[in-house]
Amino acid sequence: MTSSQRPPHHRSVVSYVQRGERMTVGQQRAWDRHWERLGREVKALPAGPVDFAAWFERDAPVLLEIGSGMGETTAQLVAAAPDLNYVAVEVYKPGLAQLLMRAEALGATNLRVLRGDAVDLLTDHVEPGTLSGVRIFFPDPWPKKKHHKRRLVQPEFVRLVATRLEPGGTLHLATDWENYAEQMLEVCSAEPLLRNRYDGWAPRPEWRPVTKFEQRAVEEDRVSHDLVFDRIETT
């Protein structure tokens, strides 16, 4: 059964919190100007995989960033990689509007955004073996032990991501919470479709801008950890 043929699925636990949708004047202006062409609602997507080549109007490697927040880092990453078809999925509408505004200011044209649940997107609208990379930078850590079940990086989710990566595709994660970093390492290391590119933690890439979360971690004496896993080729 392909992803597009699967029956609707429902999760009792999600990794995000719904927030308000009030936008600034600038965000609303960016939304009105760009959403129709550059944005989609995950829940409103037609059945089956998204035709990213048609949406971007070109064939290029597709990279998915899950949880782009307010877009301050994502916009810079998009602008720095014009050869990629860069897709950001985020549940927070003002955050996506801010990302669209930031990307426009940087002259980036290789961005498309999706509003909704990344699990729904990957399960129902991304073909297996088609993503060149997936980035998850500083997801909600849900630091209280009773909330750990809400963390995004769990075995079932990592398996889903791995199946959507093309052979040699990369899953790159970053977090400033030690306990979550250890969980990420354990979960990803246990996924047979993935192989750690490094012996443990990856070196912090120079190309990744410092986020406000990372800066806050520095101020609070927390160490950020990166992890890079590659999708192995299967016979």
Summarize this entry quickly.
The chain has helices at 25-38, 52-56, 72-80, 93-105, 118-125, 155-164, 178-189, 212-219; strands spanning 39-41, 62-66, 85-90, 111-115, 131-137, 165-175, 194-196, 225-231.
How does this model look, in words?
The protein is α/β, with parallel strands linked by helices. It contains 8 helices and 8 strands. The chain has an 8-stranded mixed β-sheet with strand order 1-4-3-2-5-6-8-7, with helices on both faces. Helix 3 crosses helix 4 (93-105).
Number of strands: 8
N-to-C span:
20 Å
Structural class: alpha/beta
Strand portion? 15-25%
Radius of gyration: 17 Å
Catalytic activity: guanosine(46) in tRNA + S-adenosyl-L-methionine = N(7)-methylguanosine(46) in tRNA + S-adenosyl-L-homocysteine
Function: Catalyzes the formation of N(7)-methylguanine at position 46 (m7G46) in tRNA.
Binding site for S-adenosyl-L-methionine: 65, 90, 117, 140
Binding site for substrate: 144, 176, 211-214
List keywords for this structure.
8 strands, 235 residues, 8-stranded mixed sheet, transferase
List the helices and strands and how they pair.
Blueprint (H helix, E strand, L loop, with lengths): L24 H14 E3 L10 H5 L5 E5 L5 H9 L4 E6 L2 H13 L5 E5 L2 H8 L5 E7 L17 H10 E11 L2 H12 L4 E3 L15 H8 L5 E7 L4
Parallel strand pairs: 1-4, 2-3, 2-5, 3-4, 5-6
Antiparallel strand pairs: 6-8, 7-8
Helix pairs in contact: 1-4, 3-4
